[in-house]
Structures are given as C-alpha cells and as structure tokens.
Write a structure and sequence with these properties.
By secondary structure, the chain is mainly α. 83% of the residues lie in helices and 0% in strands. It is built from 2 helices and no strands. α1 runs antiparallel to α2. The N and C termini lie far apart (36 Å).
C-alpha cells in the first residue's frame, strides 16, 4: 500500500468517528430532554440543543 492510501484510510476513519460522536451527542440530548422530569433540566437540555443547531447554521455547517 502506498502512503496516500494509508493516509486516506486514516482520514476516512477519523471522519466516521467524529460523525458518530456528533450524532450520538445530539441523540442523547434529545432523549434527556424528553425523559427528564425536572422542568429546569429539560429546558437546559433543549437550550443546549438549540445552541448546537444555531452554531452549525450560523457557520453554514455541513451537518445542518
């Protein structure tokens, strides 16, 4: 294998890991905001999710 192939495989692997972590964080926040009994915590989880969405839409993010 050439170095270009090895570097390409490493880059693709890293991107897949980053994408899976990103989506799992959003899923966990959504689940916590639905399942939380404390209204203040529920509101905080929803606000965190909104801030994540705003950050990606403001920068023209790839995942929006």
């Amino acid at each position: 294998m050439s170095w270009a192939t090895i570097i390409t495989i490493i880059v693709i692997t890293v991107l897949c890991i980053i994408a899976s972590v990103f989506f799992s964080v959003k899923r966990r926040l959504d689940k916590k905001s639905r399942d939380e009994e404390n209204p203040e915590l529920r509101q905080a989880y929803q606000e965190i999710r909104r801030q994540i969405d705003r950050g990606h839409s403001a920068s023209g993010g790839f995942f929006v």
